[in-house]
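JOB MANIFEST
job_type = single_chain_structure
chain_count = 1
residues = 144
[input]
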Amino acid sequence: MTHIAHALGLLLLGLTLSTAHAQNKVPSERSLETLVKTSLLTFNDANITGNYEVLHGRLSGPFREQFPAARLKGAFKEFRDKDIDIGVVAALKPSYAPAPSVDDEGRLLVKGTFPTEPKKVEFDLAFIPSDGEWKLLRLHVKVD
């Protein structure tokens, strides 16, 4: 069974929320699901097309400076080389374990799986509030 895992600090998109709200509490179930799916689907689109400009454009300012689109493309080469497509997550409901939480540093921590077959999609995401939105701080996706 192919096992693909990749972690990268500071990555991806956010869901519009007030900064105060984003710093203090986990979003509603629907907003959290939208945040997770949007993050993973944006990541997936970049991997499928090989174009990381849209993904890069949705990153926080400091992350965009540290990781240009070409560096993102290199970081996720394995997904492209193996034609990994996780787009099916759009139609599925994620399960979270442990429950999503906001830590003492204001990071939204979200870990879980999608019941995809034959291989399960696992994710480990961390978000920070930036410009009134949750923006990815960590993206770890595993297809196993």
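[summary]
Residues 31 and 86 are 20 Å apart (CA to CA).
Confidence is low (pLDDT under 50) at residues 1-22.
exit_status = 0
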